[in-house]
Automatic annotation (TrEMBL):
Pathway: Phospholipid metabolism; phosphatidylglycerol biosynthesis; phosphatidylglycerol from CDP-diacylglycerol: step 2/2. This is Phosphatidylglycerophosphatase A. The chain crosses the membrane at residues 55-73, 93-117, 137-159. Lipid phosphatase which dephosphorylates phosphatidylglycerophosphate (PGP) to phosphatidylglycerol (PG).
Amino acid sequence: MTDSANNSAKPKLQPRNLTHWAAVGFGSGLAPKAPGTFGSLAAIPLVMLMMQLPLWGYLAVTVLACVIGNYLCGRTADDFGYHDHPAIVWDEFAGMMVTFIAIPLSWQNLLLGFVLFRFFDIIKPWPIRWLDRHVHGGFGIMVDDLLAGAMAWLGLMLLQGYVH
């Protein structure tokens, strides 16, 4: 069965597999509707904790999440037999981390960053859509969300007047 024909297939989640649990956002990606949105929402408490770190700490955790995400997403996709299964939301976690780099913590920023990230992740403007279709494996799963996060970050920076 192809990925497109299998869009609503249940993942072959192994309950004791920590790689699977991280990749599905500790269960948030198992939501029956809008798993990417639920994964993005589940990332907010982690992002809020990270925002307490100095910038270098925030960046270090974000880079680590991105590097580990290549493995988590790729391994889990292989185990599920489905490239970028909707339940795999670690890429949303990493994309949300990118969205909030050097952004002050406030409920307004969290709401706006979440909305911007979901907008870019769902709409997939160029080059996000191209990358989503042409880059495979764990990096392919991650890269479109990282770029959506970068676009959301730029939107936040523009709206806050940091970029002129």
